[in-house]
Write a structure and sequence with these properties.
The protein has 449 residues and is α/β, with parallel strands linked by helices. Helix content is 33%, strand content 18%. The chain has helices at residues 3-7, 25-30, 36-44, 58-67, 71-74, 102-108, 140-143, 147-156, 173-196, 208-221, 227-247, 271-277, 327-339, 356-359, 426-434; strands at residues 14-20, 46-50, 81-82, 89-90, 113-118, 130-133, 144-145, 201-206, 252-257, 261-264, 267-270, 301-304, 308-311, 350-355, 371-375, 379-382, 392-393, 400-403, 407-411. Strand 12 and strand 13 form a beta hairpin. Helix 9 crosses helix 10 (208-221), helix 9 (173-196) runs parallel beside helix 11 and helix 10 (208-221) packs antiparallel against helix 11.
């Protein structure tokens, strides 16, 4: 279905979802003049802060947001996951997502879907009308389908992601320039295909806000040198969303959302270094280690980002040191130690520790962490298996970190109610707006319409 069907009188509902990766709701609420478009949507429809998922890692969040199910169903828990029955790890890609996405359900219902720059969608799906993969795709040539889309993106200088290495420089000018270029070219591509008006579902994600927040959040909060530039970037983003909104046909409902919140980062916390110092983790060699496979047979626990903790369990891990009969006892011990962890400033590091069965359920939970630590603001939980001189590093290049709470959702529809909602409610809301049937047990969330 598409433009010609509607000219013949087809009244199929249509939806456009614009992702604003990393934008916290409170930022929009506190800066209404910067976010005039989003403020208008909030006034004419509904908006609010929503919870993310555990863990609020982008690689886990985007499959959850676009499917409506938890990582136990998507099979993706973070940027690095562990192979079943092995100490090998891998970076999850689109084919590792085991759940149906909203565009899959739309396509199965006979609708056309244009999907642009959603993270964890590489390689692009050939059964979708058009798709350009997002973060982790190697380049436009490999990321885009069909050929017309690939050619346009290549000729227009489309940028898949901002160069984060520029954010490590003390002078942020080059980073900001590249952020604006990435934003402008992505917005132009979005607007081009919105105006094609040949789709029922449009999904496009701006990932640049997440990168800007990682490197400039403290500048904004503490009125630093780049605070005005930070707000100027966001005013531009809001303007681009406004242009897309104006380009949308009248029969399209616009939804705008982010997968997690943001706050100031004070310390990078190297969890595997902490486990080593506390006697939970050891390596086959003292200083020549860089991967999970380098742990030795006495290891009782290890960590993967962000804040995921695994027991080295007998019968599950190849060289498990924790007997299955002692699982509950050892996990409770590790949980208690995590809850009591203090930072150099005397503050509690961990807000809460969640057990796997409380947040992960589904057919693909075999690689779920045994515990997930949700940190207090300021403590960004890292993993890494390379040696570190200290557990707490205050001098990293990033000054902003993800949060579980305060993700943002804006629904430009009078019947929407964004209250007591979370990330898993986005997909069923989009499906309801599209009038695409789904089973109540097919998703973990609930429609906000």
């Amino acid at each position: 279905m598409g433009l010609f069907d509607r000219l013949r009188g087809d009244d199929t509902p249509r939806v456009a979802f614009i992702g604003i990766d990393g934008v916290p709701y409170d930022l929009v609420r506190k800066e209404p003049e910067t976010f005039s478009t989003l403020t208008t949507i909030a006034e004419t429809g509904s908006s609010g802060a929503i919870d993310s998922i555990i863990p609020p890692d982008s690689s886990a969040c985007w499959p959850a947001l676009t499917s409506g199910v938890n990582p136990g169903e998507t099979g993706v828990y973070g940027f690095q996951d562990r192979e079943v029955g092995s100490y090998d790890t891998y970076v999850p890609m689109g084919r590792d997502v085991q759940a149906s996405r909203v565009w899959d359900r739309a396509t199965d219902a006979g609708l056309d879907a244009t999907v642009m720059n959603v993270p964890v969608t590489f390689p692009p799906q050939r059964d979708v009308q058009r798709m350009v993969s997002g973060v982790l795709a190697p380049g436009v040539d490999e990321a885009a389908h069909p050929e017309e889309l690939r050619s346009y993106l290549d000729e227009s200088g489309y940028v898949l992601d901002v160069n984060a290495k520029l954010g490590h420089q003390s002078d942020k000018s080059a980073f900001l320039d590249h952020a604006h270029r990435t934003l402008d070219r992505r917005a132009a591509a979005f607007e081009r295909y919105v105006k094609r008006d040949d789709w029922e579902l449009f999904v496009g994600v701006f990932t640049t806000p997440d990168r800007v927040n990682h490197f400039l959040w403290r500048e904004y909060v503490e009125d630093g040198q780049y605070r005005d530039a930070f707000l100027e970037f966001y005013e531009t983003l809001d303007d681009r969303i406004g242009e897309i909104r104006r380009a949308l046909p009248d029969d399209v409902t616009l939804v705008v959302g982010s997968p997690h919140g943001f706050t100031t980062l004070t310390y990078d916390v190297y969890c595997n270094e902490w486990l080593e110092q506390e006697g939970w983790l050891s390596y086959e060699t003292d200083d020549d280690h860089a991967a999970l496979a380098d742990i030795d047979d006495d290891t009782r626990a290890y960590s993967l980002m962000p804040g995921r903790f695994y027991l080295n369990l007998e019968g599950r891990e190849p060289r498990g040191a924790v007997p299955e009969a002692e699982y509950d006892e050892v996990r409770a011990e590790l949980k208690a130690e995590l809850e009591s962890m203090e930072g150099p400033n005397g503050r509690s590091v961990i807000r809460r520790v969640v057990e796997r069965e409380d947040v992960f359920r589904g057919d693909h939970d075999e690689i779920a962490p045994d515990l997930v630590a949700v940190p207090n603001d300021g403590f960004d939980l890292k993993s890494g298996f390379k040696p570190h001189e200290t557990v707490f590093d205050p001098d990293g290049p990033r000054t902003g970190m993800h949060t579980f709470d305060n993700a943002a959702l804006f629904v430009d529809h009078p019947d929407a109610t964004v209250e007591d909602a979370d990330l898993l409610d986005v997909a069923p809301t989009l499906l309801t707006l599209l009038d695409v049937d789904y089973g109540r047990t097919d998703v973990d969330g609930a429609s906000l319409i």
